[in-house]
Design brief:
It is built from one helix and nine strands; from the N terminus they run αβββββββββ. It is an alpha+beta fold.
């Protein structure tokens, strides 16, 4: 009887280990999917009245391209951008407040007047050569990479 019970425990332990391994592989798969697509989810800071906009970061052979969706921002002068070799930060003032009155089970009112986003860039860039455009609520920032590949001719 003791051996039979021991076998059951080891069988159940094997099953539990199997499911734990499957869970770890699923977690790794989901993480790799989100790493492959550089979209970020919106977030907020109710105390500072700031929303994080949806942002897409793309690395090309020559540059890092950051695209942000900024609804309710009407003028390029309302946008402030700061960049270093490995980070990009921007803020943008909205012309119209955005309000959320219900969040889950807690009743809370919040008004957002500004966007703010800090991005860790995937590669080092030359911030002095960056270019930004703003059109129809879409901000695009092109940051040239610090080390560009230079073709060399063979003689």
């Amino acid at each position: 009887m003791y051996e039979r019970r021991r076998r059951r425990e080891s069988f159940f332990d094997r099953i539990l280990n199997y499911f734990a391994e499957i869970g770890e592989e699923i977690d790794e798969l989901v993480e790799s999917m989100f790493e492959a697509v550089s979209f970020s989810r919106p977030d907020w800071d109710a105390d500072a009245c700031c929303l994080e906009p949806l942002v897409h970061v793309e690395s090309t052979p020559e540059s890092v391209v950051v695209t942000a969706d900024l609804p309710y921002v009407e003028n390029k002068n309302d946008i402030k951008i700061n960049a270093t070799e490995d980070t990009l930060e921007f803020t943008a003032d909205m012309k119209r407040e955005v309000r959320f009155e219900r969040w889950g089970t807690v009743q809370r009112e919040a008004a957002f007047r500004r966007y703010r986003k800090l991005i860790k860039l995937p590669e080092k860039v030359v911030p002095q050569e960056a270019k930004a455009t703003f059109k129809n609520g879409i901000l695009q920032i092109i940051l040239p990479k610090k080390f560009k590949a230079t073709p060399i001719e063979v003689e």
